[in-house]
Amino acid sequence: MIRKIIFYVNSILWLNCKITLNSKAKKYIKYQGFVIYELILILILATILLIIVIPIFKKIENRAAQKSTIKDITYWSTAIESYILDHKTAPSNPNGKISFKKQFIADIAPYIPFLRLSDWWGQRYFIWIGHKTTKYGICLLNSYDFIIASFGRDRVKEHWKFNFSQPNQGKYKVKKLEDFNKDIVLFNGKFIRCPY
Fold this sequence. Notes:
Layout: H1 2-13, E1 17-21, E2 27-31, H2 36-87, E3 96-97, H3 103-108, E4 126-129, E5 134-135, E6 138-139, E7 146-150, E8 171-172, E9 184-187, E10 190-195
Parallel strand pairs: 8-10
Antiparallel strand pairs: 1-2, 3-4, 4-7, 5-6, 7-9, 9-10
């Protein structure tokens, strides 16, 4: 493709080309090497290509991280629900950022296929279980209620509040890179803040 563009530029300008005729009177163009404007043209085309490709790659990379994070949150939710069904009580409350040192991990470990404590952007998951916890505008009423959250690509908690009368209000469509900064939140096994 680039060779064709260079050929057309050369044929228009008739620069740095040697035209020879063979026995059948067909024209052949022999290149004598690159000139400076050909190198500049290649650099400009490469720059334009990078400007187009890099944002597309970033969006694909973040979309994969977002989907994997949603899948991990689903695993955590299933593990908490299984623990509650087996023990008739909720696991110990990590009350925020989870880590290996908390009793919650020992309670949940048999119920989860793999322990991934961080989302795919490198931020730890946040889990709140039981009453006396108010996050995202939700007051957990009994000891079985739980919230699992990832703060998104920017790792900053949103000031978004859940509205029980409009449960789909928290769903959003990812159109630009800034949309990956939005939180992903699960409440009692259902996503209340996530992409469509």
